[in-house]
Amino acid sequence: MSAKTKRGPRQALHAATVLALLAGSAYLTVELRKEEQAKAPAVQAVTDTPALKSSGSGLASGKQTWERLKSPARTLLRGEGGAILATFTDDARTATLTGPSRSFTEPTSTKTRVVTENWVRLMPEPWHKGAEKEQWFKDWFKEFFGSKEDDLFAIAFQYVDQAPVKKDSEGISYAGDANFGPINPEGTPGNDYRLEESDFYDYLGIPYTFRDGTTMQPEAMRARSMDCSGFIRTVFGYRGRFPLMATDKLGDGLPRTANGMARSKLGTDVIKLEGVGPESRPKSIDVLQPGDLVFFKLDARTKDRMDHVGIFMGHDTDGHKIFVSSREEINGPTIGDKGGTSRLDGNGYYASTLRSAKRV
Fold first, then answer.
1. How far is CA 91 from CA 127, 141, 142, 307, in A?
2. Which of 265, 304, 307, 339 has the greatest number of CB atoms lying within 10 Å of its CB?
3. Total Cβ atoms within 10 A of residue 324
4. How far apart are CA 271 and CA 8, in angstroms?
5. What is the pTM of this model?
6. For the chain, what is the mean pLDDT?
7. What does the alpha-carbon distance between residue 19 and residue 3 come to, in Å, rounded to a whole number?
């Protein structure tokens, strides 16, 4: 019997073994994909709950340490092992708390996925050194540390594409898929195709009286719409209860436009506005913290005015710095890619036009 004949059964056995292994591998791959898809959370879904439970004192169990840092001046609360539990910035009401992990996605517009344990909330008063000892803060922190009540991120995503409508007790639709604005009869796609100047009261379709007594009336054609600054005012102001100005000049609080916000004295400038030209692009954006307002110079026709604003969300699962804003290209709030990817790093459209950032 030849050597070739002797090896035949072994080759057949080897081939059968390989086929069995490949079949098993394919089966495992399919099952792993099914398992991974089953684990994929929906928008705003809570995917994990770390050991951060509010006790009677409102703090996580174990030893906590308060630490002061500079640039910007802020206070950190650290847990055992040095993990950051919360960050509070001087002169700002925005606080970032560590809590249950969530995943934010917008499947119709992007593959970007932001998974974060950061919960961004507004304190009743601006932070200052030593505020952790004051009763107003102790009461607030006890209520919100570890809470799953909607924060600013959850609220922001209640206006993205296909977000479900939410109504209050009076039947007013206060949340749901928002437009950027009505079509501009003189515009073209990519060039003022939609009109700006839609604010939160336009979206709601109801008159709104500001703290200074000014009453603004909604325009019917702007119903369910909010431009970039209108989106910020909806999330931080109408929903978050941050004081709002009627315009950039009337009242006190968050101004009406992106330019007004960028140049206001509210909060603290984490990236100071130095100018509007390409030479004024920030050298570093590492100082950014989830919840910061980020400002852009997109259109030369607006001269020295800042003309776009968004909310920094943190890093996506690919490590990119992502923001959410209302844009005419996607016709509403988005972290999407149409008209420019919503990234602050690299040299893309928005990254190259970023000029400043503020923590309010």
1. 5, 17, 21, 25
2. 307
3. 25
4. 73
5. 0.83
6. 86
7. 24
